[in-house]
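ARCHIVE CARD
SHELF: 3
SLOT: left
DATA:
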Amino acid sequence: MTDHIPEQPLNLDAAQRGDGPFVWRFERYHRITHAAVIVSFFLLVITGLPLRFSHAFWAGPLMSLLGGVKMAGILHRTGAVITFLYFSAHLFYVVRKLVRSPDPMKILWGPDSLVPQPRDIVDFWHQTRWYFGRGPRPRFGRWSYMEKFDYFAVFWGVAIIGGSGLLLWFPEFFSHFLPGWVFNVATVVHSDEALLAAGFIFTIHFFHVHLRPEKFPLDAVMFTGRATRSYMEEEHPGIMEEVERHASEAPSPHQIPDTPAPPPTRAASLTAAALGFIALAVGLSLIGMILWAVILY
């Protein structure tokens, strides 16, 4: 009878690097919301690009692959509906959390807040110096300045891209009380802001989350919800005191941030890696298509 050999962490995932027990980083709610963001964003970008760059050689084949103009429109609006649903659900989540909190200001302006604070400017400067070997890496707390930027970028996107999209989706309704030139402006704003969002996500966001040397080739912490202690000490040393406070607790399947977590199964790790690599491949392909259309046409 052979001894049982424990499953080894998947080394492709930066969140599983190093030693130490696993710690919950994200709640189930955060992971579900992030999945909705991924699905809706890719739907919107893939179906929108053939319209923006209809002159490019890849526009026609991509539109055919989507099932034609009519089906692309349906998929685009489906992505929009998913966006409005997860955004509304998140607003409800935030309001509910504020109402139930004994100290709402701690959520809005505490060390664990997602609201940008003066420290984030200092961290940005120190991070820039660190990139060029001119100083130590900043000690991020629960959220880095880049994570906060990513978070509020969704608010901007839903307001600007989503708002202009609604105007173009229901022009008959809005034309009852808006002048015609507003729809021309909405067309330009919707297209340009969407292109800006796609460019940011597929370059800056991908680099910061996955393609930095210490993250390469993938950081699947949002997919599995957990990371090793070594990862947390390196990426978010400012919350290690809270992690230490729960260190003596037994690993639990309940996804409570900072508490011990069971290691992800190999199946879960492989699934997370597959989803992550697919998203990376599609995103980088899309940015390549955008650059081709912008530079060569």
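SLOT: right
DATA:
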Amino acid sequence: MKNTTAWEKYGKKELKELEALNSEYKAFLDGGKTERECVDQVVEMAEKAGYEELGGVLASGRKIKAGDKLYAVCMGKTIAMFNIGSEPLECGMNILGAHIDSPRLDVKGNPLYESNGQAYLDTHYYGGIKKYLWVTQPMAIHGVVCKKDGTTVKLAIGEDPKDPVFVFTDLLIHLSHAQMDKKASDVVSGEALDLLVGNRPLAKADLGEDEKEAVKANVLRLIKDKYGFDEEDFYSAELEIVPAGKARDCGFDSSMILAYGHDDRVCAFTSLKAMLDVEAGKRTTCCLLVDKEEIGSVGATGMSGHFFENAVAELVANMEGESALKTRKALANSMMLSSDVDAAYDPLYAEAYEAKNSAYMSCGLALMKFTGSRGKGGSNDANAEYIAKVRKIFDDADVSYQFSELGKVDVGGGGTIAYIMAKFGMEVIDSGVPLFNMHAPYEVASKADVYEAYKGYKAFIK
């Protein structure tokens, strides 16, 4: 079976829609380099489309009915949106689920130090990365600093052209003979990924009697003056080091997007857009955008937490009377696309792929019957009956799609949130946009695949 490029089927109308969607997507990437920033954008877009915060509706005592549009947020980092249908909720939902966290470097709790006239922030990498790819790149600092007085400082330093940027340094080629002989996994160690943040010492006249580290003191003075927090406030901060700069068109033909965070904000954005563009029908629809997938979906804001299950239980209780059984039925009778990216076949590294069962750039939405690794370990394995149903939905909507696996059987693999949702008994299959450079500072997606993902997700929740 041969995959064909989606570009060949587009007329002027489709190309105009494709470019408009991708322009909006690039703006979403630029404004959402952390999961908190993504949720803030989603809430803003949802409220403009008429969605209301679920907690406020429940507190008012109002009865939820068909046609209501609701959202719930967990700790500012996960969001669930519901468009209530006319059928009882226990009949199930059509769910689009994606994650909004991406690989990065997190600032440690006691990070700032001085060494030989330079100031650094100590970091801990988050998710699976090739550490050597993150050195010598311009970096930005995004996140929040929560102070004891209850105030929160939001940071996004390095994105404005007037802002400074930061960098992880590397050993110069002239002195790196021994380094070059190391395994790629050891070329740069995790503890060597300390962010260079300063070099200028505080004037001696301004130094305190006990202060000996003048560069660190100057950085702390700047942080206090510009951003209003002290060194001890790092303990209650969530600061993420991410590549600086905007998403850019890629290629002479501008057919691709080069950006940080395609994994998995490309599926999150297209799922969100599909959700906002579909009106309520018989079946309740849901868009679920979660945190912590890159480190195993753990914690309260990860898919392993009970946030989503609790939100569904609240809806059931309000609409049909509190019932654990009806909540379980609502989940078990649901159908889901676990929307996560796939590896696009890269001919420069063909030895890692099995060509007949790989996803190809610009050939549309990639469906993965199973993920996992080496014998399907840690995988959801979608049922054949459900796959046939999804195929019909996509074919009827003229969606370009393909079937794939993540590399050769013994080479590697990956995981998604699919197996966690499947534990409720619902039908789930992985589907997403193929990428080059997955988990690198800059990943590549085809604009055609972004457009086809949006079309596919919209058809599914209709």
